[in-house]
Amino acid sequence: MTRPLIVPKTGDLRHRYSFFDAEGVAESIAGAAVTLTLRHQPTGAAVALTLGAGLSRDGPTHSFDVDVVKATLAGWASGLWVAEINLLWGYGYDEAVAVDPWQIVATGAAAGSSGTSITRQPEGTRLIRIASGGGDGEDGGDGWSPVLGSEVDGARRVLVVTDWTGGTGTKPAAPLYVGAGGLTTVLADGIDVRGPTGAAGADGADGDTGAPGADGGDGWSPVFGSEIDGARRVLVVTDWTGGAGTKPAAPRYVGAAGLTTVLADGIDVRGPTGAAGADGADGADGADGAAGADASIDVTINVQAGTSYALVSGDKGKVIRFTSGATVTIDLPNSLLEGFNCTILRDGDGAVVLDPAAGATLNHPDGYDTLRAKYSMAALLVTGNSGGSAAVYAVTGDLA
Predict the structure, then answer these.
(1) Does 188 lie in the same domain as 94?
(2) How far is C-alpha 229 from the geometric centre of its chain's CA atoms?
(3) Are 348 and 374 in contact (CB under 8 A)?
(4) Which of 268, 259, 256 is nearest to 222 (CA)?
(5) Largest CB tally within 10 Å, which of 24, 45, 306, 368?
(6) Residue 70 is inside which H or E element, if any?
(7) Do 154 and 109 reside in the same domain of the chain?
(8) pLDDT one-digit tens code per residue, 224-247
(9) Cβ atoms of residues 143 and 167 within 8 Å
(10) What does the angle CA 50 – CA 53 – CA 58 come to, to the nearest 5 degrees?
(11) What is the C-alpha to C-alpha distance for residues 65 and 50, in angstroms, rounded to an integer?
């Protein structure tokens, strides 16, 4: 990229663009509609200046002027703006010229009047060379003309400068790709020179039927078998028969999309398991077995002489015998699980009272909770415990 045109916001801007041919002779642009498009690089914002709206033709026919007042510049963002001139001729030929970018700055000396000279290439060639500065300088050496080609970038076709010809001095670098802002070394930044795909044309008429082809050899017929794959049964081509020429490979398994070499990709040729049949009739009762030996029941007795006791899970299945002469309180915890059971024996003169803990419940048909007299017995059973902290006790026996 050439050096930018510095544009301070502190004053009005007047800048002239003049066009010359390769020999330095002024070329009139009086017959072209002129647009100067500026694009702000950091944000992508765009400004288009046209004749009567930021552009004028007060000078020679090969020139046009940019006239932007200070108040308008103040509303434009500072930073680098890429500039491009478009010349639209009456016969539909459009030229696009990438010129020196503008560098708009907040402060600095007013730009005043300045100018840029542009060398036009022959018709049909994109304008690619510009010369910036003040007034006309001495004639330079012969300019370099691009040798154009195209390069494939995926589905895109990008115009590429493969070489330069006809110039004097140092030859420009190549290859360079034609991008939206000028030449670039990056293929991806080049523009696609092909337009969008056009609509499909109508189908052509059917051609004549071709002559019959020669008879092919006899085809091969598969020899099928089945193979076990766990609970599955897969159809397998174990061999081929009856054909001519090279025999196809085997084994091959029949898959959902055709033959496959992978057993696991073969389809199961068995359907899903059917519904269960109805139950058969009951068979005759068998003969009675021999009588077993008499069972003996051993009971563990937990003797308590104190006046208070809390049941524990280890008391399950035991007889708990209380011998105190004073009143005894039995704490029924809320944590004992469903199925806990024990027998309570009052073997002393003191009353024995069943006291459910917080969260526990004691159920008796008549609401009793005290063993009635000495030698009274009661059976306890935990019938449920939701959440492990709400034991429900059922009690039966000699209670009052």
Answers:
(1) no
(2) 37
(3) yes
(4) 259
(5) 368
(6) helix 70-74
(7) no
(8) 999 999 989 999 999 999 899 999
(9) yes
(10) 80
(11) 10
